[in-house]
Write a structure and sequence with these properties.
By secondary structure, the protein is mainly β. The chain has a single domain (2-222), classed as Jelly Rolls (Sandwich). It has one helix and 16 strands. The protein has one helix at residues 126-129; strands at residues 2-7, 28-31, 37-43, 55-61, 63-72, 79-86, 93-100, 106-109, 120-121, 135-142, 152-157, 160-162, 177-179, 182-184, 194-199, 211-222. The strands form two sheets. Strands 1, 2, 3, 5, 10, 11, 12, 13, 14 and 16 form a ten-stranded antiparallel beta sheet that branches. The radius of gyration is 16 Å and the shape is globular.
């Protein structure tokens, strides 16, 4: 089942809203030099948290596949909640993608299960992302139903599967592990379903970089449909 089909932001916000249900805050609709429509968020060094209110709410699901194109001009020196999920109605955080420092730029956090764990890199290098080009990221997030009994996620970058493995320091004292190409939480603390996606969210305080990120062609489907 299609939840959201190719939101390009060419003619409007395609159902995305701020935290109160109005127009998104902190992002602009823009067209790049190649004529590609997108939602754009920019930042400069700041001693406080910054970020956009840019959310899409939907009927709660146990399993959601999310795909979008993005162009990112800079890394960050703290951590950025790039594409994160909650239960419907801005309830419990249940996991999502982060942009982090260093060469292993994209990471995943399970949130509901891993409240005290750092995020886990998903196998994409900064040099692959920060090249001035558009890229796609796709992930299949299975909250409830994985045969392991725990939440899991699988990832594709520019259409190709990417995965760990974990390296020293990724998740101290953590049950998170890769199983057959899926990052597995290794524990369960909630059966909450996925009912909201927040993109271009909080960039943590004291970030020292400047940059911008554009996103477009945002699609979501129920289950494992690709």
């Amino acid at each position: 089942m299609t939840i959201l089909e190719r939101a390009t932001f060419a003619d409007g916000w395609d159902g995305f809203a701020n935290f109160g249900g109005g127009a998104p805050i902190g992002v602009t609709r823009d067209v790049d030099g190649a004529g590609r429509s997108s939602a754009k968020f920019g930042w400069t060094p700041a001693s406080r948290d910054v970020g956009a209110q840019f959310c899409y709410s939907f009927t709660p699901q146990d399993r959601v596949r999310t795909r979008f194109a993005f162009k990112l001009t800079s890394g960050v020196s703290t951590i950025w909640k790039f594409c994160r999920h909650r239960e419907q109605g801005f309830g419990l955080l249940v996991g999502g993608l982060f942009v982090q420092t260093g060469t292993r730029i994209l990471s995943w956090g399970f949130d509901a299960e891993a409240t005290n764990q750092q995020t886990i890199p998903v196998g994409v290098r900064a040099s692959q992302v920060l090249d001035g080009k558009w890229h796609t990221i796709e992930y299949d997030y299975w909250r409830n139903g994985d045969p392991s009994g725990f939440p899991s996620a699988a990832f594709w970058f520019d259409g190709l599967p990417v995965a760990g493995p974990l390296v020293a320091g990724d998740a101290p004292k953590s049950p998170v592990r890769w199983i057959d190409g899926r990052l597995n939480a290794g524990e369960r603390r909630s059966t909450t379903k996925i009912g909201l996606v927040q993109m271009l969210g909080t960039l943590n305080a004291n970030n020292t970089t400047s940059g911008e990120c554009r996103v477009t062609d945002v699609s979501m489907t129920q289950g494992d449909a690709r």
